[in-house]
Each structure stands twice: as structure tokens, then as C-alpha cells.
Design goal:
Layout lengths: L7 E4 L7 H6 L1 H7 L3 E4 L3 E3 L9 E7 L5 H14 L3 E6 L3 E3 L5 H9 L21 E6 L3 H6 L4 E5 L2 E6 L2 E4 L5 H5 L5 H9 L7 H24 L1 H9 L3 H8 L4 E5 L3 H4 L4 E2 L2 E6 L5 H7 L1 H8 L5 E4 L8 H11 L4 E4 L17 E2 L2 H9 L7 H12 L5 H15 L2 H16 L9 H14 L14 H16 L6 H11 L6 H23 L26 H14 L4 E2 L10 H7 L6 H14 L11 H14 L4 H15 L10 H15 L2 H31 L3 E5 L20 H11 L4 H5 L6 H16 L10 E4 L9 E6 L3 E6 L2 H4 L8 E10 L5 E6 L1 H4 L6 E5 L3
Parallel strand pairs: 1-2, 1-18, 2-5, 5-14, 7-11, 14-15, 15-16, 17-18
Antiparallel strand pairs: 3-4, 6-13, 8-9, 9-10, 12-13, 19-20, 20-21, 21-24, 22-23, 22-24
Helix pairs in contact: 7-8, 16-25, 17-18, 17-19, 17-22, 18-19, 18-22, 19-20, 20-21, 24-26, 24-29, 27-28, 29-32, 30-32
């Protein structure tokens, strides 16, 4: 491992932007001042994958990205430019598709597959192996009647096909297909299907009979009899059904997914199956290629995707640290507002969502929050009880999307209760309800207890959640919560109890993510710049003291933490949020515009009942992303309405409602009066929004940690949620602009606001300072707040990094309007040079003078 961590830059790899294309931008990134290229997952994923999280073969580089040869060339090019690599890895799940040969083998051979223990399939105790696959476009019987389930020969073996999906047929069913039911091997394989836990003798028998069946199938294929058999069975639905009944899986319509899926998914995505990374053989197989990269010194660090999905995250982090003792381990961990990363974890920090949440709120004026809240409630008629809404949405998700997982959890709890005479007669219904109330009351994504370890933080969280659930559930017998409290806080767990706790801890993050991030964030739209991954939509604004306190914490405990302001998971880019947040400064003006626009656009509803929630969201979206075209706005609104799950959803699309929203969006864009009014409203917000963006970027560049840039955001970027934020980035334009920056002074840069040059220029300058003055950004360079004096001291945020750097940024510039009055910032002793203007100051500065040539400042102590 070599090279200091100056800054990371995230690149999204896919077939349209493979490693060869990424290699072409390395020169630009090096010139910008980036030290580490931060790559999205690059192991073999489903062909055509746009994100790489659906891995099918972790042993090689993706063909879509150029394969192994492209990886070698990319690494070589990066090294030549002194760039290092941070790689996103996916330990929690893989693709559950025909492209995943491990999973395909499990579906064909069930518990006799060598990979049966790789995947988190949850079979009730005492039941034979059978996976419920909810992949059909209609119920099984209807799909069968419509001849949508076809048997085909692929590679000499029969498979059942349903449009783009296909699944293997177990050897036990080949006799039914070939009409060779008398052949003993098929009967024996049929008997073995009922085996619950195969022993050594069962495995030997299976291998022997499967080998015989394979020989018979090969002979049939060679003679053409297999092809004839397949052709002959297509129109005989009874025979097709008889064949499918002999599989290690059952096919179902997609609408049953939440109710009967019996494998752990990545959230609610059926095509992503959880893997058992806690098993050493699974970890070894899924990390073999990563281990090779580390051994060859090709990567400096890893970003661990969704560690909360793992059964034992700490065990995984320890294993990863042994693999990468000198590199960095970052985790995609979402922390609630006051939650802290666990002290004992052998990692270097998170990917920075919690930093994003804090710095994002600096541009929200909490003094005007009441006016915003009243406007939102009045216009939409929606509840403003945030806590109640969160519980409602989590409960709805648990009862639908994760109904099967919840049922399995409740059955496990009931079995534990019945094993003790004291709790044998607990009501199954009430126990299930009590678990539901506990999950909805949990204030964090998950706890991290193990079979024999429960730290005090987890104990506190659990007991407080149990108390909240108990108070809110007077109809549930107190004995149910007494049982749950004893179980969750028990010091040493037996095997059944440990399995129950593990299942619960893997379920709660999924319920939180789907209930809050992917539902509530689209329902509670008071100020949507606060509805961001890792943030709490109920919180508007943050005091300077609280922000400084958080940065102190980073400096003392996690000095290498990543600092993000935009990511591939964002609901809105940093620049969209920075502009929308200005509405908190001018809530009366926003309220007036809102009602005026509603009147202007009344006809756009085409005599249909208006949806004020969708209308309120659309106006904020247009304000934040303007100029945005009709197509992008409609695509966003469709996704937002389906995610909200109020009048339509992905699961049950309401075409009539969606057409109403489509018509309204179209009518809004077709109204010249509205567009003119919107532009008049947005125009005064553009410059303050850009100043907010520059300010939060400077804070990111100077605060304790490693600044992270999402592709393209070094210029103004007005992107919405994916796939909008994954549009192609014009790197050639950025490289051309970067070439101009070396010769330009601050005043000249500000003459070109529109191109985004000020953001790029400032970023390049500060990254150069980070490279040249590494000691001033080291873990030893502590964070110290500086406090302004005067009538507008709350509108200035300043802090010192170590002894030689001071960052100063304005807040709430929309309503400040440049009038700083008597505000002054006292400076530590010595002479200070403004990195952006080359002006020198000492003792104290006036913000008006400090920001006269550039709207933010980085002061460097003169060495003289």
C-alpha cells in the first residue's frame, strides 16, 4: 500500500462506461488532485447490469467491463498516474438468476448441491428443501394455462423457461419428461427429494443415481429423443405441472413475493439472494478475486456494501481486516441522527452519509420551520406527525413486503417460548403482534448482539424500543413483552435463540430502509432537501455548535471517515438540495408562490381531483432541478408516486392515477404563464444555492476525513434519484475547464458562474493544498471551532484545522443579501493568506471584505 488519501472520486461502471472508458478519465482525475479512484463493483454481474451489485461470479472481472485484460490495463494506468483504487464490494448478496451457476446448481440439486449452504434459504425445521420463486407475471395456474412456462433444451439439459427467466430441471424429473418412470434411478432420486438433512449415505446415493440419470439424459439428447420429448410435452399442461412438481423449487406469481418468499433477499428484491458470509467457505469463495487484488497491491481499500445485512458484521470486519491489514475498510452504514459508529469495529469509518446529513442541514433555517410546516400541512392536508408516519410506513412494509420473514420470525419466537413452562401459553397472535410493534419502534437500523455478547448500547436501544412498543400496545399481554425483553437481553443464547436474534437483526435494516428511505421519504415532503439517505426528514437546520460537535467527534474517533455530499444512492444531488433548502429562508414567499401556481395549473388536472401531495413535490422538484425537461420530470414523478405507495405502487400500479399525474406534469410544462412565474421565482435562488454548494464543498474538503466526490459533481449537477443521477458524465468538458483553472483568478472565475467553473476551480485549488500540506490534514490536525462576533454571527461558520488552516463560509445568503453589518471574525495570531484571493489578513476580518472576491474562504497561515 502506498500514497496518502487526499480525496476519492466515485465512478459508476457498466457496459456503457467500462474500465476502458474509466481509464480514459484517470489523467483528468489525477490533474484534479484526486488520490483514489472509487470504483463501483466490478466482479462478474448479470450481463447488462447498470450497477454491479447483482454479482453472479465473484471469481473474475465482469465481461461487460472488459474482463481481466481491461482490469490489468486500468490498474497499470492508475499506477502510472500515482492513483490508487478503492473498490466497492458486495458480501451480503448475489444475483438469484440463471447467470449465477452456484444458485442454478442449488435449484437443480437442492440440499445435495455443493452450494446449498452458500445461500440464506430459510426452510422450516423438519421440512424438505423447497425454494419459493415468485417470478411469474401471473399466478402459476394462469401462466401454465397461457403456455408461458415452456420446457427447452439448453446445453444438452432441459430447463423451464418463462420469458427472460429460466430454471434447471432436477434429475428426479427427467424420468417424467422422458417417460422412463420405470428406471430405478429416477424413483430413487424422487425418494431422496424428501430428505430433510442429507447424511453422508444420502449424498453418496444421490451422486450415484444422479450420475446414472445424467447418462440416460445424454443418450436421449444424442439420439434426439430428449428433443422429441420436450416438443411432445409443451401442450400437455398436466405433464408440465407434474414435471415442475418434482423440482426443488416452486414457481409463483410475483404478487406473492412478500408473503411466501423463503430466502433472505437484499431488501425486497427477489432477484438478489442473501449469502451466508459468516461461513468461512462462503467468505473464501466470494472474496477469492478480491484477495488476489490485495495480494498484488492493486487496491488500497474496500467499501463494504450493506454490512447490516450480514449475520455477524463484526466477525466479517475482522476477517476483512486480516485480509487488508494496511489498507482501508469503509462501510456503507446508515446512522440515525445521534447514533454513533461502534468503537470496537476494525474499520476506518463509513462512506459518509452521516456527514452528508449534518452538512446538508447547515443551509436550512430552523427559525422558520414552523411556517414551512404550516404551509405543508395546509396545502397537502397530510399529517405532520413524523414519528407516527414512520411507524405506520414501517408497519405497512412489514405486513406486506416482509410478511413471510415476519411470520418465520414469529414462529421461531413461539418455538422458543413453548420450550419453557413459564412462557408456553403465550398467545401466538400477540407474540407476532409484539414483534411487529418492536420492529416498528426500533429507532436505528439494527443492533449487533451475538450469541454471547450484548454491549450496553444495544441493551439500551432494545430496552427503550421494548418500552415504547409496550406503552403503545395496551391490548397486548404484558407477559409478551416480558418474554421478549428477557430473550433480547439474555447474556448467553442457545442455538435457537441465536438464530432468532440473527434473523431479527437482518430483518430490521430492510424494514427501516424500505419503510423510511423508500416510502416515508416520498410521503413526508415538507422540505425535500432533508429527505436524504442517512438523514431524518423531521429535522430542519442544525446549530453551528452541533455541527462543530460532530466534526470534533470525527476528528477524535474517525479521522479517516469518508465525507460525502453526493452519492449514487442520493434522492437528490447536493446542488439540488442546496437550492431547495433556501425555501426555509423564505417560507412566506414559497407559500405565496405555491398557492399562485396551484391556481395557474388548476386546468392541468383536467377536471380530475387534484393530488396536492404530488403537486407540492413537483414544485419543489422543479425549483431544485430547474432547468429540467418534461421527460426527466415525469420519470421522477412516476418513481416518486410509486415509492410513496399512497395512490399507486410498483407492486400494484394504478394506471388511472398515474395517467392523471402524467397529464398534470404535461399541463404544467405546457403553461407559459406558470413557466414564466417559476423562472422568476427560481432566478433569485440560483446564486445563493451555488454559494451553499461551494460552502459545503469547502467544508468537505477541509473537515476531518477523506472528501469524496460522486462522478460529475465537481461542476453544478442538478440530478435527481437514480437512474437520473447515473446519466453519462461529460468528462471531456470537465477536463477542458480544468485546464483553464490554472491561469484564472477568483474574479475571472466568478465571471463564469454558469459553467460550474467556480466549483471546479475551488475544488482543484483545495485538493492541491491537501496534497502539498498533508500534515495539516492528518489525523493529528485537530478540529477547532472559531466563533464570530456581531449581529449576524449565526450566519458565519468558521473552523480551524490544526494550526495552519481556517475555513470560513456564509450561511443563509438569500436573506442576508450581502449585509453583514458589524459582524467580525477574530483570527488566531499571525498573518493569514486567503487561498482563493491571495489577500492577507490578520487579527480579525469582516465577512463582507473576506467574501468580496470569492464567496467562501480558506485561510492559510503565512510561514514567515
Amino acid at each position: 500500500m502506498s500514497g496518502s488519501w487526499v480525496a476519492t472520486y466515485r465512478l459508476q461502471l457498466h457496459a456503457g462506461f467500462p474500465l476502458s472508458a474509466a481509464r480514459q478519465v484517470l489523467g483528468y482525475l489525477a490533474e484534479l488532485g484526486i488520490s483514489h479512484v472509487y470504483l463501483s463493483p466490478c466482479l462478474q454481474a448479470v450481463p447488462g447490469s447498470q450497477h454491479g451489485y447483482d454479482v453472479v461470479d465473484p471469481s473474475r472481472i465482469s465481461d461487460d467491463l472488459g474482463g481481466e485484460a481491461a482490469w490489468v490495463q486500468f490498474v497499470r494506468a492508475a499506477r502510472e498516474l500515482q492513483l490508487r483504487i478503492l473498490l466497492d464490494i458486495v458480501p451480503n448478496h448475489m444475483s438469484a438468476s440463471r447467470h449465477n451457476l452456484w444458485w442454478d446448481d442449488v435449484l437443480q440439486q437442492g440440499p445435495f448441491s455443493s452450494f446449498a449452504d452458500f445461500f440464506d434459504v430459510r426452510i422450516p425445521q423438519g421440512q424438505p428443501f423447497s425454494v419459493h420463486l415468485c417470478s411469474l407475471g401471473k399466478p402459476y395456474g394462469a401462466a401454465l394455462e397461457a403456455h408461458e412456462l415452456r420446457i427447452e433444451v439448453v446445453g444438452g439439459e432441459p430447463r423451464v423457461k418463462h420469458y427472460e427467466n429460466s430454471w434447471p430441471l432436477a434429475a428426479a424429473s427427467w424420468g417424467e419428461l422422458l417417460a422412463e418412470r420405470a428406471e430405478p434411478c429416477f424413483d430413487e432420486l424422487g425418494h431422496l427429494r424428501s430428505v430433510v438433512v442429507p447424511g453422508a449415505e444420502d449424498r453418496c446415493a444421490y451422486q450415484r443415481h444422479a450420475a446414472r440419470a445424467r447418462d440416460l439424459l445424454a443418450a436421449a439428447a444424442k439420439s434426439g429423443r430428449l428433443q422429441d420429448a420436450v416438443a411432445g410435452v409443451q401442450d400437455d399442461m398436466a405433464r408440465v405441472d407434474a414435471i415442475l412438481r418434482r423440482q426443488y423449487y416452486l414457481l409463483h406469481g410475483w404478487k406473492l413475493s412478500g408473503e411466501i418468499t423463503n430466502y433472505r433477499r437484499f431488501f425486497d428484491i427477489d432477484s438478489l439472494i442473501g449469502i451466508r458470509a459468516e461461513r468461512p467457505e462462503v467468505a473464501a469463495a466470494t472474496h477469492a478475486r478480491i484477495q488476489q487484488m490485495i495480494a498484488k497491491d492493486e487496491i488500497d481499500g474496500v467499501r463494504v456494501d450493506h454490512p447490516d445485512g450480514l449475520r455477524e458484521p463484526l466477525q466479517y470486519f475482522e476477517r476483512l481486516r486480516r485480509m487488508l491489514p494496511d489498507g482501508r475498510v469503509y462501510i456503507e452504514k446508515i446512522l440515525e441522527n445521534d447514533e454513533r459508529l461502534r468503537e470496537g469495529w476494525p474499520i476506518d469509518g463509513t462512506v459518509g452519509y452521516e456527514f452528508l446529513a449534518k452538512v446538508n442541514r447547515l443551509w436550512m433555517d430552523d427559525q422558520r420551520a414552523d411556517v414551512l410546516t404550516a404551509t405543508y400541512a395546509d396545502f397537502t392536508g397530510h399529517s405532520v406527525n413524523f414519528g407516527q408516519l414512520v411507524r405506520e410506513k414501517k408497519r405497512a412494509i412489514l405486513e406486506t413486503t416482509f410478511a413471510a420473514s415476519h411470520e418465520l420470525l414469529a414462529e421461531a419466537a413461539l418455538k422458543i417460548a413453548r420450550a419453557a413452562w413459564q412462557t408456553r401459553d403465550l398467545s401466538p397472535r400477540q407474540l407476532r403482534e409484539g414483534l411487529e410493534r418492536l420492529i416498528t419502534a426500533l429507532p436505528v437500523y439494527r443492533t449487533y448482539r451475538t450469541a454471547n455478547a450484548l454491549d450496553e448500547e444495544d441493551r439500551r436501544i432494545l430496552l427503550e424500543a421494548l418500552q415504547s412498543a409496550r406503552i403503545g400496545s395496551p391490548e397486548i399481554d404484558a407477559a409478551v413483552f416480558d418474554f421478549l425483553a428477557a430473550l433480547f437481553t439474555k447474556t448467553d443464547l442457545d442455538a435457537a435463540e441465536a438464530d432468532f436474534i440473527a434473523m431479527w437483526q437482518q430483518l430490521t435494516p430492510a424494514v427501516m430502509a424500505k419503510g423510511v428511505e423508500d416510502t416515508m421519504f416520498y410521503c413526508y415532503d415538507r422540505l425535500v432537501s432533508g429527505n436524504e439517505v442517512g438523514s431524518q426528514a423531521s429535522l430542519i437546520g442544525i446549530s453551528a455548535d452541533k455541527f462543530h460537535e460532530f466534526c470534533h467527534y470525527l476528528s477524535d474517533r474517525w479521522p479517516h471517515n469518508m465525507l460525502a455530499t453526493s452519492t449514487h444512492d442520493n434522492k437528490r444531488s447536493e446542488d439540488v438540495r442546496a437550492r431547495i433548502s433556501i425555501l426555509s429562508e423564505i417560507p412566506e414567499r414559497w407559500s405565496e408562490a405555491l398557492h399562485q401556481w396551484s391556481q395557474l395549473n388548476a386546468n392541468a388536472w383536467q377536471n380530475r381531483l387534484p393530488d396536492r401531495h404530488a403537486e407540492y413535490l413537483l414544485y419543489q422538484t422543479l425549483i431544485g432541478a430547474w432547468p429540467i425537461d418534461h421527460g426527466r420530470a415525469w420519470e421522477y414523478m412516476l418513481k416518486a408516486c410509486r415509492e410513496a405507495k399512497i395512490s399507486t405502487s410498483w407492486h400494484e400500479p394504478n394506471i388511472s392515477f398515474e395517467e392523471k399525474i402524467r397529464g398534470f406534469v404535461g399541463g404544467v410544462f405546457d403553461s407559459p404563464d406558470f413557466i414564466a412565474s417559476l423562472e422568476r421565482f427560481v432566478e433569485p435562488l440560483i446564486l445563493p444555492g451555488r454559494i451553499n454548494s461551494l460552502a459545503q464543498t469547502l467544508i468537505k474538503l477541509v473537515a476531518p476525513g477523506v472528501p469524496d466526490f460522486y462522478q460529475g459533481t465537481e461542476l453544478w449537477d442538478l440530478s435527481l434519484v437514480d437512474p437520473d443521477n447515473r446519466r453519462p458524465v461529460d468528462f471531456a468538458r470537465r477536463a477542458q475547464l480544468l485546464k483553464r483553472t490554472a491561469q484564472l483568478h477568483a474574479v475571472e472565475v466568478l465571471a463564469d458562474w454558469e459553467s460550474g467553473l467556480p466549483k471546479l476551480w475551488m475544488t482543484a485549488r483545495v485538493l492541491r493544498v491537501r496534497r502539498e500540506r498533508g500534515e495539516d490534514f492528518s489525523a493529528a490536525a485537530k478540529y477547532q471551532p472559531l466563533v464570530a462576533q456581531g449581529s449576524h454571527l449565526g450566519r458565519l461558520l468558521a473552523f480551524r484545522r490544526g494550526e495552519n488552516l481556517i475555513a470560513v463560509v456564509p450561511r443563509f445568503t438569500m436573506t442576508l443579501a450581502g449585509d453583514w453589518g458589524d459582524t467580525r471574525l477574530p483570527l488566531p495570531g499571525g498573518s493569514w493568506r486567503n487561498c482563493f484571493t491571495e489577500e492577507r489578513v490578520q487579527r480579525e476580518v469582516s465577512p463582507a471584505g473576506l467574501f468580496s472576491s470569492f464567496p467562501v474562504a480558506l485561510l492559510i497561515r503565512d510561514s514567515a
